[in-house]
Amino acid sequence: MTPNPILKVLSTLKDYRVKCLLIGGQACIIYGAAEFSRDSDFVILATHKNLERLQKALKCLRAKSIYFPPLETNYLKRGHARHFRCGAQGVEGLRIDVLAKLRGCEEFDKLWLRRKRVRIKDNGSIDVISFRDLVQSKKTQRDKDWLMLKRLVDNDIVLNKTDPKSEQIKWWLRECRNAELLIELAGKYHKETETVSINRPLLFFAIRPDKQKLSFELQKEETNERQKDIEYWNPLKKELEVLRHEKGIQEL
Amino acid sequence: MKKPKVIDTSVLLMDEETEWLSLTPAKRFLETTKLWKLYIALGGNLDPEPDPQSPFYPQRLSS
After folding, report:
1. Cβ distance of B59 and A181 shorter than 8 Å
2. What number of CA atoms fall less than 13 Å from residue B48's CA on the CB side?
3. Is the pTM of this model over 0.80?
4. Domain ranges across chain A
């Protein structure tokens, strides 16, 4: 049995030249925010040619559909996700989730240009969503994504705190969700904090500093973002419900 | 204006975390292979835990 089933999925997608980027839990491992994940999530280019390649790769992995909708470009381009469960030896039971759009993130072409290529000894290379795009993709309705987001940004600050560039400081000030770190950043980088605070007013509580109010505002910001995600998925879920009624409750 | 307290950010990370973060992305990915080996040896399932917070959760058709 392949010790790491994710590697088998990745190499199969590579063999069939599927244009996709690794996202989710595995990307969090690459960037240091997680140590283990059973997630196997990808953002893919939604073209007929690429979906044909994906179909072939899925066939090789003996992957079956477990959710609606069908694997078609029009569904994927509207934001739907596709889910498969593998049946091939070494990956039995592993789920593969595929999306073409990530809420709040740019189109696939832009994500592709910014991708990180990680070379794995004896296993070729992996194309991974960029660090900043991964952080953006984690602004969902799920608790675990916010935990990851926080870890990703906190780690980035701690690892790069020696002589950071102004652009990096501004990104931290836009994305950091840790009140203590924000207060520290605001205390060190006045100019950047003032600039970013125009679009993120909660930073005023980091400048003051008022940790309690800052934490409260951070929570409010998170709640708003979660609500946006729920609103994004609502029409898609309704569409899936209609499909489910039309096709009956059975596997595609 | 009160002067902010300066925090040593290194204390925010535990030793194990620091060690993990000091690895290259490729090494981190390969390290998970060891965990997979252990996980599979202990009879772990590859299917992820059901996630009721996932927007896909209610659309599940079969397990």
Report:
1. no
2. 22
3. yes
4. 5-137, 143-231
Separation in Å, CA of B22 to nearest CA in chain A: 9
CATH architecture assigned to A5-137: 2-Layer Sandwich (3.30)
pLDDT, one tens digit per residue, over A85-97 is: 999 999 999 999 9
Q: Residue A31: its chain B contacts at CB < 8 A?
A: 25
H or E element that contains A220: helix A211-247
Kindly identify which residue of chain A lies nearest to residue B35, measuring between CA atoms: A36
Residues 6+ apart with CB under 8 A from A223: none
C-alpha distance from A209 to closest chain B C-alpha (Å): 6
User: A175-202: per-residue pLDDT in tens?
Assistant: 999 999 999 999 999 999 999 999 999 9
φ, ψ for residue A129, nearest 5 deg: -55, 145
Rounded CA separation A21/A221 (Å): 28
**How confident is the model over B10-33, as pLDDT tens digits?**
555 667 788 899 999 999 999 998
Helical spans, DSSP H, in B1-63: 15-22, 25-41
